[in-house]
C-alpha cells in the first residue's frame, strides 16, 4: 500500500551561505498519523521562526524532531552545513528545549529545580527570585512556567526551541522573556517557537502548519 504525502510546502529560507539551522523535506508521524510532510525551512544566525497552526497540526512534533527527541520519517536537519543529528548527544548540547511540561520537581525548592550557580540571577530575570526557597509544589501554573523559562537565562545552547512558552504568564513576564530572546539572537542564536499567542520576536518568519485529514 503506497503512502500518499501532502503537497510540498514552500520552504522558508535565507541565503544558503548564511543558513545556520536548516530542515529539508521533513516528514513525521505521531502514532500512525502523518502529521506533516515535505517541510523545509532555514534560519540564519540571529533568526527566529514561529510555528503557527491549529492544535494537532504537528507543531510540537516538529519541535521534538528538531530537538532530537523524536525521529523524522524522512528528511534531514542541518546545523551549520552538517547533519545535526549524526551525533545526538552532541546535538542535545546545542539545544535548549522548553516543552509543554515545565519539568519542575514539586519536592524541590525553586532554586534547587534550576540546579545552577546562576539560579538566582536567572530567577531575577523572570521576576521570580522571591520564590527561590519555596517548594515548587506551592507555585501557581504561571509561576512554574516562569521558572521553566528562567532556565534560558543561563543557557549557552545556540538553538532555543519553545513550545507554547507563554500561557498563564503575565504581560510583564512576557516582556522579560522578550529581553532574553533578543539577547540570545544578538549573540547569533536561533529561536523556533510554536505559539497561539503573540511572542516578542520581531522580524521572525512564520511557518503555518495545517492539520491533515
Describe this structure in words.
- This protein is α/β, with parallel strands linked by helices.
- It has helices at 59-67, 88-92, 110-114, 119-125, 141-150, 171-186; strands at residues 21-30, 33-43, 48-52, 74-79, 82-83, 95-98, 159-163, 190-194, 205-208.
- A 5-stranded parallel sheet has the order 6-7-8-3-9, with helices on both faces.
- A hairpin with a 2-residue loop joins strand 1 and strand 2.
- The longest helix has 16 residues, at 171-186.
- It is globular.
- The model is unreliable at 1-11 (pLDDT under 50).
Topology:
Layout: E1 21-30, E2 33-43, E3 48-52, H1 59-67, E4 74-79, E5 82-83, H2 88-92, E6 95-98, H3 110-114, H4 119-125, H5 141-150, E7 159-163, H6 171-186, E8 190-194, E9 205-208
Parallel strand pairs: 3-8, 3-9, 6-7, 7-8
Antiparallel strand pairs: 1-2, 1-4, 4-5
Amino acid at each position: 500500500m503506497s503512502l500518499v504525502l501532502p503537497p510540498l510546502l514552500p520552504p522558508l529560507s535565507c541565503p544558503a551561505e548564511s543558513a545556520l539551522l536548516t530542515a529539508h523535506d521533513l516528514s513525521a508521524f505521531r502514532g500512525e498519523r502523518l502529521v506533516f510532510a515535505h517541510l523545509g525551512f532555514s534560519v540564519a544566525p540571529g533568526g527566529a521562526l514561529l510555528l503557527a497552526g491549529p492544535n494537532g497540526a504537528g507543531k510540537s512534533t516538529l519541535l521534538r524532531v528538531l530537538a532530537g527527541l523524536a525521529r523524522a520519517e524522512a528528511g534531514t536537519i542541518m546545523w551549520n552545513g552538517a547533519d545535526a543529528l549524526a551525533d545526538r548527544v552532541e546535538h542535545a548540547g546545542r539545544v535548549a528545549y522548553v516543552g509543554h511540561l515545565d519539568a519542575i520537581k514539586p519536592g524541590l525548592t525553586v532554586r534547587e529545580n534550576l540546579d545552577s550557580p546562576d539560579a538566582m540571577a536567572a530567577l531575577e530575570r523572570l521576576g521570580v527570585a522571591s520564590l527561590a526557597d519555596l517548594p515548587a509544589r506551592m507555585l501557581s501554573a504561571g509561576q512554574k512556567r516562569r521558572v521553566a523559562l528562567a532556565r534560558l537565562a543561563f543557557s549557552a545552547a545556540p538553538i532555543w526551541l519553545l513550545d507554547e512558552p507563554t500561557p498563564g504568564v503575565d504581560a510583564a513576564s512576557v516582556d522579560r522573556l522578550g529581553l532574553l530572546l533578543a539577547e540570545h539572537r544578538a549573540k547569533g542564536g536561533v529561536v523556533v517557537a510554536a505559539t497561539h499567542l503573540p511572542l516578542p520576536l520581531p522580524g521572525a518568519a512564520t511557518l503555518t502548519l495545517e492539520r491533515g485529514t
